[in-house]
Write a structure and sequence with these properties.
Layout: H1 3-18, H2 20-25, E1 31-35, H3 49-54, E2 58-62, H4 69-82, E3 87-92, H5 95-102, E4 108-114, H6 125-129, E5 141-143, E6 148-151, H7 153-160, H8 166-175, E7 179-180, E8 198-203, H9 211-221, E9 224-228, H10 234-237, H11 239-250
Parallel strand pairs: 1-2, 1-3, 3-4, 4-8, 8-9
Antiparallel strand pairs: 5-6, 6-7
Helix pairs in contact: 4-5
Protein name: Pimeloyl-ACP methyl ester carboxylesterase
Domain AB hydrolase-1: 32-244
Pfam families: Abhydrolase_6 (PF12697)
């Protein structure tokens, strides 16, 4: 074989080893189930979904009602039930509480928390957050007469979706879901991260969930971690890094 042919052959081998088909062959998980946070919907994952599919994974983005922990867990468990296993279960923000409870399922291989809460058994979102100083962003949360919370447009741009373009911030504000306050005080009965391999994205510029809380949760869960210089919606501002960690959790 001539030198040039040898170089071409080597290049083809290298390409094959990093092609989507080759990556897919290296994955143990088949499906990624994505769980959005409060004040959001499945479109939160719009930039991550094509990257996961390109890697050879099936993807399901749950559309949770944000009514209560019980209802969000029920919606997520239906998605798990219908998905091909093994499954990587991913949660952003409030979605971390949901996957902590819903992840106690034999079909779930691993958990990924993206700028998310990861309470222990018997803890609620409020229990976890109360150990840290209140974030300035909480002043932009508005509660209606039925107990549903939303974030003001100013709060979306300054805190929740900080780091995104004005057009992206406006879209986040338009699609935000109302989140019932009762969900914040509902404790999880079992912490799935105690039994499953866990991976966490720490958003170092997060103004919704304190970065120190996120780092402390990494230690508690003995999770594999990456840090990104991002605000709260890390999957929209740093989709490649988030997708890479999810793919790693699928291996």
């Amino acid at each position: 074989m001539s030198r040039n042919l040898g170089l071409i052959f080597s290049a083809l081998v290298a390409f094959a080893s990093t092609s989507p088909a080759a990556v897919a062959a290296d994955l143990k998980a088949k499906t990624v189930v994505l769980v959005h946070g409060a004040f959001a919907d499945g479109s939160s994952w719009q930039k991550v979904i094509p990257l996961l599919e390109k890697a050879g994974l099936k993807v399901v983005a749950v559309q949770n009602p944000l009514e209560s922990l019980e209802s969000d867990v029920a919606f997520t468990k239906r998605a798990i039930r219908d998905a091909e296993e093994p499954i990587v279960l991913v949660g952003h923000s409030w979605g971390g509480v949901v996957i902590t409870e819903a992840g106690d399922d034999q079909k779930v291989k691993s958990l990924v928390y993206v700028a998310a809460y990861a309470p222990d058994a018997g803890q609620s979102l409020v229990d976890v957050a109360s150990k840290y100083p209140d974030q300035e962003s909480r002043k932009t949360f508005v509660k209606d007469e039925d107990g549903y919370l939303k974030i003001s447009d100013d709060g979306i741009s300054r805190y929740f979706a900080a780091g995104l373009s004005p057009d992206e911030q406006r879209l986040v504000a338009v699609v935000q879901g109302r989140f019932h306050v009762r969900a914040t005080t509902m404790p999880v009965s079992h912490a799935a991260w105690r039994d499953k391999p866990s991976f966490m994205v720490v958003a170092t510029q997060d103004q919704i969930i304190a970065p120190q809380m996120q780092r402390d949760q990494v230690k508690s869960a003995k999770a594999e971690m990456i840090e990104v210089p991002s605000g709260h919606v890390a999957m929209l501002s740093h989709p490649e890094e988030v997708a890479d960690l999810i793919v790693k959790a699928a291996r």
